Amino acid sequence: xxxxxxxxxxxxxxxxxxxxxxxxxxxxxxxxxxxxxxxxxxxxxxxxxxxxxxxxxxxxxxxxxxxxxxxxxxxxxxxxxxxxxxxxxxxxxxxxxxxxxxxxxxxxxxxxxxxxxxxxxxxxxxxxxxxxxxxxxxxxxxxxxxxxxxxxxxxxxxxxxxxxxxxxxxxxxxxxxxxxxxxxxxxxxxxxxxxxxxxxxxxxxxxxxxxxxxxxxxxxxxxxxxxxxxxxxxxxxxxxxxxxxxxxxxxxxxxxxxxxx
Length: 261
Hints:
Largest sheet: 5 strands, mixed
CATH class of the largest domain: Alpha Beta
Number of domains: 2
Order of helices and strands: HHHHHHEEEHEHEHEEH
Number of strands: 7
Number of helices: 10
Shape: elongated
Helix content: 40-55%
């Protein structure tokens, strides 16, 4: 029996839609499915709900936030421990790298053997790129990142992460390009990083805001895309915004007791 199809093609489709989109209710969703012949069993029915919600998460006709809310309710209140674990994993998977969500974390060493993590970079947006020394496009764009770092390092933190299979290739690279002064790290065979950041091809870019939340994933690359967009535009907007804040702070009246009049 294909449980997810039972959920998606259940006879009471209208009630399922209303339970998710209008009521945001696990209880009403459960009731909508309770009369299905194949879903009489409570455990199977709840598993069908979990599977069904995961299948329709990217469907434009369903409210994604409500789907997450119902999954979270199962995670917190299900009678079945395995369902709690499945729901928790699904929430993490479905929201991973979504804008506004917490960025995956990591701790690596840079070319100076200094510890690099998102925590010690907080306070500025962070531009992360994943590259390999055997990837020609990666190497070309690293040279452009050099100019971006020189231009925007006061308002943007830069982290480059090598996923070279042989760390010797990484070591030789940072030795040969000692004029690259931003954080360049090797992933140290931590495959969780590859999974967390959904690395399917190189180079890949992610922009994290100053509070450690995802801003762009994937982020614009240093080279303009087909629509002439590059990360330079984003960085320029951040620089401009920071400049305006600084101008305001310099020009505003000191209202503290004893301050200037």
